[in-house]
Amino acid sequence: QVQLQESGPGLVKPSQTLSLTCTVSGGSISSSSYYWSWIRQPAGKGLEWIGRIYSSGNTNYNPSLKSRVTISVDTSKNQFSLRLSSVTAADTAVYYCARGHYSDSGGYVFDYWGQGTLVTVSS
Amino acid sequence: DIQMTQSPSSVSASVGDRVIITCRASQGISSWLAWYQQKPGKAPKFLIYAASSLQSGVPSRFSGSGSGTDFTLTISSLQPEDFATYSCQQADSLPLTFGGGTTVEIK
User: Fold this and answer.
1) CA dist., res. B77 & res. B20, Å (int)
2) Cα–Cα distance, B41 to B32 (Å, whole number)
3) What would the pLDDT profile of A28-59 be if each residue is shown by its tens digit?
4) Of these four, A55, A118, B40, B46, which has the most CB atoms within 10 Å of its CB?
């Protein structure tokens, strides 16, 4: 059973960089069949896709966040990470990591998720 | 970006009730739609892909339908463990986008 677990600071100051890591267990992050995503959810709002990375290092980002986001992967540790720079209160949210895959019938979906971690941006 | 709009935002229902949640895409996405279930403090659960295909292990009381821009998630007989928030996601193109969520509450 694949499991994902987010880790990182729960409090970040405005203008600083938010950094989170997702550790994958029960499966290899190096599989070319999957991509690895970050998704966030502000309180009372819907889910927002932040971006994704393949084990090759190829990335795609949401244009709304692209200038501030970096997603990286460390296959030796079976982890991938998120960095979001110049944060403001609007970046306060529960951040999820998720495994995604593509199929000709289903498109781009997320089959396993972490339980999420709350990150608050406040001085 | 493809905008996803869900309705209602919340619904109150009793155990045994039939619940229908709708999701509308701002442009046609064929059948490339997924549904997820979220419970507080838990990892979201993948329920349905390709608009109507149940992920392995998902109870048959869940069903999905639709294509193009209009989709529905139906719970045929609500069980206590089904009280949760349900979100749709367009699986067609980047950036991947989600609906605002529908919370199914106990009546």
Assistant:
1) 11
2) 28
3) 999 989 999 999 999 999 999 999 999 999 99
4) B46
Tell whether B40 lies on the interface with A, counting CB pairs under 8 A.
Answer: no
Residues of B in contact with A111 (CB under 8 A): 46, 55
Best of A48, A59, A108 to substitute, by most chain B Cβ atoms within 10 angstroms, is A108
pLDDT digits (tens, 9 = 90+) for B48-86: 999 999 999 999 999 999 999 999 999 999 999 999 999
Burial of A70 (0-12, 13-18, 19+ CB in 10 A): middle
Which residues, numbered 14 to 33 in chain B, qualify as contacts with chain A under a Cβ-Cβ cut-off of 8 Å?
31-32
How many Å apart are CA A46 and CA A37, to the nearest integer?
16
Average pLDDT over residues A17-31: 96
Looking at the complex, report in whole angstroms how far the Cα of residue A29 sits from the nearest Cα belonging to chain B: 19
Segment A1-28 shows an average pLDDT of 97
**Cα gap A78→A80, rounded to integer Å:** 7
C-alpha to C-alpha distance for B38 and B46, rounded to whole angstroms: 9
